[in-house]
Amino acid sequence: MAQIRALCVYCGSSGGVDPVYRAAARELGRRLAEEGIEVVFGGGRVGLMGLVADAALAAGGRVTGIIPHRLRDAELAHQGLSELVIVDTMHRRKAVMAERADAFAVLPGGIGTLDETFEILSWKQLGLLDKPLFLIDVAGYWAPLRALLDHIVARGFAPARTHHMLRVVPGVAALLAALR
Predict the structure, then answer these.
(1) pLDDT tens per residue, range 137-165
(2) Please, what are the domains in the chain?
(3) DSSP assignment of 94-161
(4) Angle at CA 44, nearest 5°, toward 47 and 125?
(5) Are 175 and 28 in contact (CB under 8 A)?
(6) How far is residue 32's CA from residue 14's CA, in Å, rounded to a whole number?
(7) What integer is the mean pLDDT of 11-28?
(8) What is the pLDDT of residue 1?
(9) pTM higher than 0.85 for the full model?
(10) 103: closest CA among 55, 167, 23, 35?
């Protein structure tokens, strides 16, 4: 695996109900900063996104946010980032995040997190992108998604190699070991 200098983090814009998700977000931000890995994320100040960014910044890390002007204008943009890139659309946001990252990590999240994750997985399946994609399975959060992917493969709607395009790690420490 090539050296990872920038990691795109997908995660919820909600804090979630379980404090373990918030703790994982803070740990990820802090540990990435300590490792000298830039955080590339959706640019929001809310939810797990904001926690990852805040923790990385507090630990002296570089954090780049990519946010559509509509969300920035709704006062959701994080104002203390190393760099905040304003784009026109959600589609452009995902493209810029992918361009700027060497790999992707997915913390718990909702529909938007799934959208981002499946877009990268689709690009990988089509051969449009060859960057590592990791699910951080905090407290088993992604078990239902893993079961769905198994079902999709078993029914012939995705190739068996789909399992190798998405690496599941149990936590932040395992992610960092995999990135090394």
Answers:
(1) 999 999 999 999 999 999 999 999 998 89
(2) 6-179 (3.40.50.450)
(3) HHHHHHH-SEEEE-S--HHHHHHHHHHHHHHHTTS----EEEE-GGGTTHHHHHHHHHHHHTTSS-TT
(4) 90
(5) yes
(6) 21
(7) 91
(8) 53
(9) yes
(10) 167
Q: What's the token pair of residue 7?
A: 């990691």
- Under 8 Å between Cβ of 22 and 48: yes
Tokens 């814009």 -> residue: 13
Token pair, residue 131, equals 């960057």
Cβ contacts of 75 within 8 Å, gap of 6 or more: none
What is the pLDDT, as a whole number, of residue 14? 87
Structure tokens at 11: 């995660």
Structure tokens, 121? 């997985």
Residue 113's region, left for phi above 0, alpha for psi from -120 to 50, else beta, is: alpha
Residue with tokens 């420490």: 173
**CA of 39: how far to CAs of 20, 22, 26, 49, 164, in Å?**
20, 16, 12, 10, 24
